[in-house]
Structures are given as structure tokens and as C-alpha cells.
Design brief:
The complex is a heterodimer. Chain A is mainly β. Chain A is 0% helix and 41% strand. The chains are: A mainly beta, B mainly beta. The interface between A and B is large, with 35 and 38 residues. Strand 7 of chain A pairs antiparallel with strand 1 of chain B, so a sheet runs across the interface.
């Protein structure tokens, strides 16, 4: 899936299931500011200290594990969601500074800040009046 | 109020729903997540010895934005989120549901409303709803007459 006129596109397969566990594709917002791109992902139930963010060869991968399910033998009356690790990858074509990537996790929401590389930041050119 | 839940659905999820619907007709029971669910975040509900447990995914919701109540045989979950549009940003992708909502979850039996408790942990709400004493099984003594 390639988004038109965007600098971040979905890298597939974004969610590979292992044989034993289900894996979920989190909903994300991707936004751009003057100096950075940022990605906001809904990963309710994810364990903050186990979240893994990887950026290699222009591909950003987020892996957010959740607590292993303990729902054996539960008698569900309503079941609208399942539980499993979140995983999703994006190809980032914008030049970003990998060393400047930061992440925060609040109330089940992961926010990644991807600062643009110096070379692509809009640069103001001073015009000197003569 | 903005109800973003149905409009932000990605076509691939609609396809998944179609598949689930198909599969649930072949494999009845509750091993597949529900399909025709109402607007609002996803809910799981199960029964345990003491009563009911309800679980809801509420990423980004703060406890002060959340209002829970039990009215007759329904659990009402209300979330009021202030509307705010970040300034000076361009959206490249927007999938996360936004806005306030209210959802009423029908309960299968009477609940002891005084003893309902809830915790919100890392964006997941878990509500414990003990059965009302009137809904607990009562042993009826049978007198034998000779």
C-alpha cells in the first residue's frame, strides 16, 4: 500500500503471526511538522519496557508485546477483541536522523518522534538588502 | 462530538469482518471476535464465579475523562475527550478513532451496583461487576413428607 504524496508508506507484511501467537496491527496516525515526522500508535495493554522500536534501512518497525493471555477457559459473553503483540512496519522515505528518534508511552499510546535530517529541514535564506 | 469509529475503518478490516462473519457461521461459538459490533471501542465480557468482568480498549483515555455507571441492567461507559486539532501539522495517515462516545453494554443479570469496581491500566479498562445477591443461586430446601 503506497500512499500518494506521503513520505511514509506501509511496509508489508506488517504483521507476521508466529505459529503460537496472534499479532495485531495497531491503528496509527502519522503526522508531519516542520522539523519532524511523528507516529502515534494505539497499543492498549502493551508493556512499556518491552516495546521495541527499530529503524534500519529506511524501515521503521514497532513491536509492542502485551502480557501473555490468561483467558483459558473463560466463558465469553461478548468478545470483540483478541489479545496479542502489536507489530507494524513502515518505509520512511523522508531523510530522518535515526540517532534522534525518541519514543514515549502514555496510557496505552506510543508516540515516536522522527526528527528530519539536517539536510532536509527547510532552511531560511537570509536576503540581504543592498 | 465526533464519532470516528466507523469512518476510520480501513477497508482491510472490513474485509476481515466479512471473513469473520463467514467463519462464525461455519464455526459458531465465541472463538472468533464479534463482527457486527456497535460504535465505540471494542469490549470483551465474560462471566466468572463472582459475577462479570468487562474489558475495554481505551488507549489515550485518562481516568478523569471516563464515566462509568450501572443503570438497571446496563453498564454505561462514557468518555468525554476535549476536541483539539494540533496546529501546524500535516496528517499523512489517520486511523486512530477520535472523539467522545457513550456505549451501553447490556448485562445478562442483576449486578450489585454498590460493589462495582474498575481499573484503567495502560489504556485497558477492566470492570468487575459482582452479581447481585438476588441473582445468586439459592438453595431451596425440600421437605420430605411421608
Amino acid at each position: 500500500m503506497l500512499d500518494q504524496q506521503t513520505n511514509v508508506s506501509e511496509q508489508s507484511p506488517s504483521c507476521e503471526e508466529t505459529r503460537s501467537d496472534r499479532c495485531y496491527r495497531p491503528n496509527v496516525d502519522i503526522l508531519e511538522k516542520e522539523n519532524e515526522l511523528y507516529l502515534v500508535a494505539d497499543v492498549p495493554g502493551a508493556l512499556a519496557d518491552k516495546i521495541d522500536v527499530d529503524f534500519a534501512d529506511g524501515v521503521l518497525t514497532v513491536h509492542a508485546p502485551v502480557e501473555p493471555a490468561s483467558d483459558d477457559g473463560r466463558r465469553y459473553l461478548v468478545r470483540e477483541f483478541g489479545k496479542g503483540d502489536y507489530r507494524r512496519s513502515f518505509r520512511v522515505s523522508e531523510q530522518i536522523d535515526p540517532s534522534g528518534i525518541t519514543a514515549e508511552f502514555v496510557d496505552g499510546v506510543l508516540t515516536l518522534h522522527l526528527p528530519k535530517a539536517e539536510s532536509v529541514k527547510p532552511r531560511k535564506i537570509a536576503v540581504r538588502a543592498s | 462530538m465526533v464519532f470516528g469509529y466507523s469512518t476510520t475503518r480501513h477497508p482491510i478490516y472490513q474485509l476481515r469482518d466479512e471473513m469473520d462473519r463467514l467463519l462464525s457461521s461455519v464455526f459458531p461459538g465465541n472463538s472468533w471476535p464479534a463482527v457486527n459490533r456497535p460504535e465505540g471501542p471494542a469490549v470483551n465480557m465474560w462471566e466468572d464465579e463472582g459475577g462479570l468482568k468487562v474489558e475495554m480498549e481505551l488507549p489515550g483515555v485518562k481516568d478523569e475523562q471516563l464515566d462509568l455507571s450501572v443503570v438497571e441492567r446496563e453498564l454505561i461507559v462514557k468518555v468525554e475527550v476535549p476536541e483539539s486539532e494540533p496546529e501546524g501539522v500535516t496528517y499523512h495517515r489517520r486511523e486512530r478513532p477520535v472523539g467522545s462516545f457513550r456505549r451501553a453494554i447490556p448485562l445478562p443479570f442483576e449486578i450489585d451496583a454498590e460493589r462495582v469496581s474498575a481499573v484503567l491500566t495502560r489504556g485497558v479498562l477492566e470492570v468487575t461487576l459482582p452479581k447481585s445477591p438476588s441473582a445468586l443461586p439459592r438453595k431451596i430446601e425440600v421437605k420430605v413428607s411421608s
